[in-house]
Amino acid sequence: MDGRGRAWHLFTGLVALFAVVFQLVLVWQGHAVLDEHNRPSLETRLIRFISYFTILCNVLVAVTSLFSAAAADSGSRVWRVLRLDALVGIAVTGLVHWFFLRPHLELDGNDYLADKLLHVVVPLLAIVGWLAFGPRGDLSRADLAPAAIFPTAYIVYTLVRGEVAEWYPYPFTDVNEHGYAVVGLNGLGVVLLFAALGYGAVWLDEKLAGSRAVG
pTM of the predicted model, to two decimals? Predict the structure, then answer.
């Protein structure tokens, strides 16, 4: 990866890190997240903060982007899976936000800014940066199944914790409102979207790596 690529990934990682910390500060102060209108205890707010798929994906983008910028990754399979999870997860974050969550949001000021950084700016930076600069040629179809563990585990965690805490991070995961059948289908849809985008990323990575090799 050349200097421009490392600079882009460094910028992406720093923006993602800032967005996560910025949202954490707002949560600490008791600001609204999504469509919450009450103000639970600080402990509850912090647990809910790390229970959002958006936050986890932005953290993954921050870590993988900063390591890519420093050229410090080992090229191991675990690293490849993490990078694939970051790329696909942040794409899913952007798509789900745009089509399903945005109509429910009534945010302004810093809350609006944090929302747009996490759901729009970081996804665009991560995806454009990967398309333009890579790293290229190190994704494999063998990484798809391990990468699917992340969204599957997240859905299981969300349903189990939701049953215990009677709180769900997203409207389409709310069992109390929709029931397990509908929420299960919604979760399956997210996993399938994740898998489809992951397969598309691996396929495109192979094509782009091949075209660069020929060039």
Answer: 0.91
